[in-house]
Amino acid sequence: MKVVVTGGAGFIGANVVEKLIDRGVEKVVVLDDLSSGYRANIEGFDVEFHEGSILDRALLGQVVQGADSVIHLAARPSVPRSIVDPVLSHEVNATGTLYVLEAARRHGSHVVLASSSSVYGSNPVLPKSETLRTAPISPYAVSKLATESYALAYQAVYDMSVLPFRFFNVYGPLQAPGHAYAAVVPSFISQALRGQPLTVHGDGCQTRDFTFVDTVTEALAISAIKRIASASAVNLAFGSRVSLLEVIKLLEKCLDRRLEVTHSDPRPGDVRDSMADDSLFKSLFPDVVAKPLELGLNETINWMRSSSFDRN
Fold first, then answer.
1. What is the pTM of this model?
2. Whole-angstrom Cα distance, residue 13 to residue 193?
3. 3-class DSSP state for residue 13?
């Protein structure tokens, strides 16, 4: 079996590469332009690596040729980054996905791809069911809605096998903290390990459905290997709802000390509350279970303590 992972040197990508190899996939191919991924993330793995962009249609066609499945994770991540440069976010996330789907259509490949819970946007209903009206409030969210919409349109028109997942605040080892657009969990842990105050945007009462990366990659690997498809986007989370202040309390428990907190202005484009309805996911992946947040935070802390990221 051949599985292509776009963005395979990134945080989620490198973790799913390891999962695919552990599950016995014979040929794993990584395409990554290293704009937010790291070659070191996949060192030591038996993979075929191509440095390049999903916007390079010739290279993409070459890489996808003969692939049974494509796990499409390459993207320009982050809501704040998309606000700074909405055009580039659209080009990579929307147009890039279109190119991936075209390459997969030519070669008969199943496609598993990453959308985002941000597509629910300003819709206040909780939990977030896949049948809810989407209401994106950032260019990033719009680009991710385009990502999943293109996939489902290709399924409808070309009878392609696709599975768009909506990720909810994935965290865990390999998630880099040391940049302006870093996610909240690695930012908090990095600041705590460096003895700095934890920066909270807003009051900290905003809630998220945090999902450990190993759980996410388990579902990605199964869907690629078994070529599981869906007629709609699928939430990839487990219906938890935790505030940022509660995350800080758990980190204090993990680190066995009090943490200083500073508050800054809320960030434009951030949703207030997020919580998945996981019933569709559970029907497709009954054996994939959530990891408790405290255990996941401990694993992430241990990884960050042993890594070279953001420790200078």
1. 0.95
2. 25
3. helix
